[in-house]
């Protein structure tokens, strides 16, 4: 990743993201839709954070800005001392390539590549990746590595997507409704994989969900409404994913 | 009020307007070609038929030495003959002040009684016919008058039977007999140096000792009469007057040229557009398959709402209808305009009183039917599949596409391939038919590029072959009538002549089995170095001491092969009949000819050193002197200067072929671009999710571009060799259909033509890739990934 301003801005040790007054306005036709209304936020290494909120509350916009898929209209966003607000596309690409892993509701695997090859796509381009085999082992798919997406169940496909996201040993794992398309049992398997990665690799993990139950596995729960963080709550103890019920 | 489904149709179409335009344009190219050629055919055919009818074009023609007018009376009594017109026709040299070399005039007599012509009536453009008692007044052919800036009231000098006479132009006209106006045996018109001239019978007859006689006759057949028996009777009757054998309108040089042109147009109106339309059908299929796959859920919704499968099916077929109607409209307008434009070219070749463009509306209907039919056929299976799906199933997202390692990987080549390349290979193998269709479209587009290049390659070759390798003389001089060795001696000793070779030609009918052809057998010296005969490898042929060499085309017409004996009936002098073996074939590209060693021919004719003319090589420093002398040589009927023929060719045919070639080239380029663009757009739309995923996980834009372009590039590369092969086949097919008795194109395609075809397709590909790459840059990554498939 490249330095985007003359010097790194101050950030507390262990702080991965520091956001100040993040605003995002979408211009749609004649209307301006304000998706984020000045969000202040700090996210630390090793944390598992849950973003809760109704549709249109701004949680996906926030996640996309954190992941370098979008840029804020105003405000500051610093990743480990590097400014991301106003960064060039090339910088954001490198940021995504080396620092962030994404998991979406729909698995977005390349259907023409096997599980192993889907992961290898990333290991081929990042700086210090783990092997595809190691990544797939972490999500419990060591026996399904040479299967094509069409030969895998929904849960398995989502776990391949997670393996693909973490194979680069990212600092940050961003999950946008990772269990949204899955049944309960399968969803829990997927969350176990996310939890394991957060624990074993110390990856800052941010999960967007509608499902309040999932908040119990988080260190911290942020509630968004109308583009603002309206509450922040820290769990005393994290519930293992395997014990979640909904 | 628009039906909601139609409203959806319009909005869907406007979202994919780039592709709609691309497919419609390709379709329009094919239709424009079809409409243009069909309309030209209609125009030429109807104009000719009206002209022939109005101006009484004769049915049967014959030339002879000299027959008394009483012979014509006997002709009139033959069964099946409705009318007879006798004439005196002679070729003379015309001396125009502005022209260094002599021009040729074909003097044709008007009726003796001063009345109107019964057959082949002259259409008078301006002026009037000669007054009955005027010996010097003439009606001049229109194209010659135009080319030389002559008008009624002007004068021109002609050498008539050895005497220089001044002729006064009283009118400018044209005749159905000379729609294509060229010297005998010439395949191209040279309006500057050849003209038909009509003058009073008496003036001409007296000068050529034809008073009370004629040397040319034409007949009108009674309705329902068959030409064959009439010709037989006529030949029998006129044999004693030195007749060269009568022939029908089909073999009349001018009529034959129009027939040939129509034949070429017919083949162009069919083969070439069909290829364009096939490409369009492939494209429609690809576009519609994509829409139907994309709108799987919408189809389910429509059906859930109560629309019947038929209604849904019809809705998707309307996409095809819109594209077809749009293509037909563009093609109709373009075809109409191109046809009008190209008609101008025909006015160079064919002289009609009026050549008014007629649009062939029926071809528009046929075109629409053909293109819609082909496209509908292409999409029928896609639509059927779409409407067959139960709504509940269709509303669930499509399961991930089923893939397996590609063939190359199964045989152990995996490690050589990058993930992007593997994706491309597997995609192709998963939907082989889609890949085949795309490649077919690309191959056809590549093939279309070959024809225009092949046409100019052939013409270039023809020019070098005919004007450099074969005809090395500067001038060919033909005498008014056969002369003794002295005649040749005179030509040989004209100022500046470096080398001279005699020509002896004699009209004859060649028969083999039940085929026969009337033509001139040309005798040239065995070691001829000026007008050389060449075999197909362009090696000079040394004529054998006996037997014939003939055009390969003539052998084909006669159904004869080398070694076969043909029956030669000489139609002149003592009219000997002999059997002569075919000793070899000559590759020539204009007319049909038979050659013999001049000595052998003279032995057949039982004569001495008779000549009809000579091929001459002339010292250029003496050119003007040479020309002056030739102009004053009374016995020279016509003189052909090679340089002028070449210039005339370049001015007319060369230029016109250039226009046609450019037109075809533009159409083919549109197709190449359209096909690649369409495929690239489809690939982008089908794979947007994959590509967005790659962007999200950190692939740079160029890396993602490589993945998108990789598969298409593979298909383009795979299509190129087939495209070139197909293009070769198509060019050979179309160009061999140009091959007529009067003119043939040598079939030769240079490597540069293939290279240009490849280059154009690659450029079109690069441009299309650039367009979709820009779209790729604007892809809404999040939107795509969050959408369900």
Query: Can you identify the CATH class of chain A?
Result: Alpha Beta
Name of the CATH architecture of chain A: 3-Layer(aba) Sandwich
Q: Could you say how many structural domains of chain A there are in total?
A: 1
Fraction in beta strands of chain B: 15-25%
Number of helices of chain A: 6
Strand order in the largest sheet of chain B: 3-4-9-6-8-7
The strands making up the biggest β-sheet of chain A line up spatially as 6-7-8-3-9-10
Mean pLDDT of chain A: 87
Main sheet record of chain A:
6 strands, mixed
Number of strands of chain B: 20
CATH topology of chain A: Rossmann fold
Q: How many DSSP-defined strands of chain A?
A: 10
* Fraction of residues in β-strands of chain A: 25-35%
Helix content of chain A: 25-40%
Helix amount of chain B = 40-55%
State the shape of chain A: globular
Instruction: Give the uncertain stretches of chain A in residue-range form.
Output: 1-13
């Amino acid at each position: 990743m490249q330095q985007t301003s003359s010097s790194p801005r101050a950030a507390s040790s262990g702080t991965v993201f520091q956001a100040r007054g993040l605003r995002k306005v979408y211009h749609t036709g004649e209307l301006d839709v304000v998706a984020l209304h000045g969000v202040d936020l700090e996210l630390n290494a090793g944390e598992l954070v849950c973003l809760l909120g109704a549709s249109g509350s701004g949680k996906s916009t926030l996640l996309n800005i954190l992941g370098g898929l979008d840029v804020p209209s105003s405000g500051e966003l610093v990743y480990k001392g590097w400014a991301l607000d106003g960064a060039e596309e090339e910088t954001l690409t490198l940021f995504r390539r080396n620092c962030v892993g994404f998991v979406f509701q729909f698995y977005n695997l390349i259907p023409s590549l096997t599980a192993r090859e889907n992961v290898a796509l990333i290991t081929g381009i990042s700086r210090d990746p783990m092997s595809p085999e190691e990544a797939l082992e972490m999500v419990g798919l060591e026996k399904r590595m040479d299967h094509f997406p069409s030969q895998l169940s929904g849960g398995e496909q989502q776990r391949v997507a997670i393996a693909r996201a973490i194979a680069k040993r990212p600092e940050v794992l961003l999950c946008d409704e990772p269990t949204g398309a899955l049944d309960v049992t399968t969803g829990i398997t997927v969350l176990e994989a996310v939890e394991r990665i957060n624990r074993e690799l110390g990856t800052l993990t941010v999960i967007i969900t509608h499902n309040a139950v999932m908040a119990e596995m988080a260190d911290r729960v942020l509630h968004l409404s109308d583009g603002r963080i309206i509450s922040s709550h820290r769990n005393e103890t994290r519930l293992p994913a395997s014990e979640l019920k909904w | 009020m628009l039906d909601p489904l139609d409203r959806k149709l319009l909005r869907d179409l406007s979202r994919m307007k780039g592709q709609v335009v691309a497919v419609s344009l390709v379709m329009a190219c094919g239709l424009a070609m079809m409409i243009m050629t069909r309309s030209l055919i209609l125009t030429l055919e109807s104009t000719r038929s009206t002209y022939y009818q109005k101006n009484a074009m004769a049915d049967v023609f014959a030339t002879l030495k000299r027959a008394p007018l009483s012979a014509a009376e006997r002709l009139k009594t033959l069964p099946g003959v409705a009318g007879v017109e006798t004439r005196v026709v002679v070729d003379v040299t015309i001396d125009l002040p502005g022209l260094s070399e002599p021009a040729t005039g074909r003097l044709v007599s008007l009726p003796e009684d001063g009345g109107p012509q019964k057959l082949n009536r002259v259409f008078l453009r301006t002026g009037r016919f000669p007054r009955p008692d005027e010996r010097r007044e003439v009606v001049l052919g229109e194209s010659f008058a135009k080319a030389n800036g002559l008008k009624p009231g002007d004068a021109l000098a002609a050498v008539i039977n050895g005497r220089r006479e001044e002729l006064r132009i009283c009118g400018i006209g044209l005749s159905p007999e000379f729609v294509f106006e060229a010297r005998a045996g010439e395949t191209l018109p040279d309006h500057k140096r050849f003209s038909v001239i009509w003058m009073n019978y008496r003036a001409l007859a007296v000068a050529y000792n034809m008073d009370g006689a004629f040397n040319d006759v034409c007949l009108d057949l009674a309705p329902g009469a068959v030409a064959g028996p009439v010709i037989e009777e006529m030949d029998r009757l006129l044999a004693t007057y030195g007749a060269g054998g009568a022939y029908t309108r089909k073999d009349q040089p001018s009529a034959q040229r129009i027939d040939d042109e129509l034949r070429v147009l017919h083949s162009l109106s069919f083969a070439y557009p069909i290829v364009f339309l096939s490409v369009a059908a492939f494209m429609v299929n690809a576009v519609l398959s994509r829409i139907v796959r994309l709108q799987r859920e919408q189809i389910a919704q429509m059906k859930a709402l109560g629309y019947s499968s038929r209604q849904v099916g019809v809705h998707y077929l309307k996409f095809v209808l819109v594209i077809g109607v749009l293509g037909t409209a563009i093609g109709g307008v373009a075809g109409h305009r191109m046809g009008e434009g190209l008609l101008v070219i025909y006015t160079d070749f064919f002289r009609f009183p009026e050549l008014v463009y007629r649009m062939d509306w029926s071809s528009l209907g046929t075109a629409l039917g053909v293109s819609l039919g082909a496209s509908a056929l292409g999409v029928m299976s896609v639509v059927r599949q779409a409407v067959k799906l139960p709504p509940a199933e269709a509303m669930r997202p499509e399961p991930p596409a089923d893939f397996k390692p590609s063939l190359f990987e199964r045989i152990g080549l995996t490690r050589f391939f990058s993930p992007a390349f593997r994706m491309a290979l597997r995609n192709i193998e998963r939907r082989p038919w889609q890949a085949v269709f795309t490649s077919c479209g690309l191959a056809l587009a590549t093939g279309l590029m070959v024809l225009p290049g092949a046409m100019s390659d052939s013409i270039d070759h023809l020019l070098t072959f005919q004007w450099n390798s074969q005809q090395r003389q500067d001038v060919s001089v033909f005498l008014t009538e056969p002369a003794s060795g002295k005649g040749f001696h005179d030509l040989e000793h004209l100022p500046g002549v470096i080398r001279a070779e005699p020509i002896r030609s004699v009209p004859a009918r060649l028969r083999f089995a039940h085929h026969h052809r009337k033509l001139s057998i040309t005798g040239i010296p065995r070691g001829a170095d000026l007008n050389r005969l060449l075999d197909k490898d362009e090696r000079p042929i040394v004529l054998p001491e006996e037997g014939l060499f003939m055009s390969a085309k003539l052998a084909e017409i006669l159904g004869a092969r080398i070694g076969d004996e043909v029956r030669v009936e000489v139609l002149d002098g003592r009219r000997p009949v002999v059997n002569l073996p075919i000793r070899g074939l000559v590759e020539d590209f204009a007319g049909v000819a038979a050659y013999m060693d001049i000595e052998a021919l003279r032995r057949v004719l039982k004569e001495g050193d008779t000549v009809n003319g000579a091929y001459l090589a002339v010292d250029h420093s003496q050119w003007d002197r040479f020309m002056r002398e030739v102009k004053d040589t009374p016995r020279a009927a016509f003189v052909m200067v090679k340089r002028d023929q070449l210039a005339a060719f370049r001015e007319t045919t060369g230029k016109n072929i250039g226009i046609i070639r450019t037109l075809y080239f533009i159409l083919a380029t549109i197709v190449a671009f359209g096909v690649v663009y369409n495929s690239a757009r489809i690939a982008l739309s089908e794979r947007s999710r994959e590509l967005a995923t790659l962007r999200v996980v950190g692939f740079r834009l160029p890396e993602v571009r490589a993945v998108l372009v990789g598969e298409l590039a593979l298909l383009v590369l795979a299509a190129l060799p087939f495209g070139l092969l197909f293009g070769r086949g198509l060019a050979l097919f179309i160009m061999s259909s140009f091959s007529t008795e009067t003119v043939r194109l040598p079939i030769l395609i240079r490597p540069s033509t293939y290279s240009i075809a490849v280059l154009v397709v690659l450029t079109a590909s690069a441009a299309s890739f650039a367009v979709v790459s820009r779209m790729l840059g604007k892809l809404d990554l999040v939107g795509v990934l969050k959408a369900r498939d």
